[in-house]
Fold Transferring glycosyl group transferase.
Amino acid sequence: MASATKLIYLSMILLLLQLTPLMESIRTNPTLTPTPTEWPLQFHSVLFINNSGSLQKTDLWYDWPNGRNFNIIQNQLGELKYDLEWNNGTSFIYTLEPFNKTCKVLHFDVGILRPNWLQGATFLGQERVDNFLCNVWEKVEFIVYYEDVITHRPVKWIFYTGMTAHVMTFEVGAVLEDAKWQAPVYCFGEAETENQRSKISPVLESPVHGGSPGMLIRTIADAADAVL
Ligand SMILES: *[C@@H]1O[C@H](CO)[C@@H](O)[C@H](O)[C@H]1NC(C)=O
Ligand SMILES: *[C@@H]1O[C@H](CO)[C@@H](O)[C@H](O)[C@H]1NC(C)=O
Ligand SMILES: *[C@@H]1O[C@H](CO)[C@@H](O)[C@H](O)[C@H]1NC(C)=O
């Protein structure tokens, strides 16, 4: 008899344990609105970007454990531009030979985007974009983000400036070798250095910074920090 009672208690506890995650998700999310998937800690993505008709192919190397993010931007029939961002707020924006050797160093108050940077985004519904059925969210009015309903991979995002990125590849776990994360020597010493101490609006107004997805991403990180 005693052992039968124990068995009943045990199965009740097991049932509760099983239900707990479900109850948790119902409590935090009463309508079961979909939430954006966190970014993998490391990935490589090829993006096709349309910035008011100017096209770019960008290699995005997101590397959270190492506190770094890289946008390697090929402008259509134009310059190859490197936008290397560190979590301490420093960005190196440079070109290499055969293009002119230029480098700009920027300092931001924010680091790179956190893997959960989409947390708290507003769900806008589902939409078919680039031939994929997507869940759509808006984050602090700076970005609209489209994620494949089935695979949960990002498909597209649109910055507040209208700049639109289409995700062509999404290689989870891909890491760019360390040697490639080295800004050229002319970034150190006499390079032009700017402080981006200001929040949001000066970045918004600056046509130079508006042109780079890296700058826009930093702006979003900035805005997200301000909101959180
Ligand atoms: C790029 O975007 C502009 C609108 O800003 C649009 O007119 C044009 O067709 C787009 N180009 C491509 C290749 O998608
Ligand atoms: C941030 O980190 C990078 C890479 O280690 C370094 O080159 C840069 O000088 C650092 N910036 C600051 C402000 O410490
Ligand atoms: C590269 O430098 C040369 C000489 O200073 C200049 O004429 C040219 O416009 C520059 N090219 C770019 C793409 O900035």
Observations:
- The two ends are 55 Å apart (CA to CA).
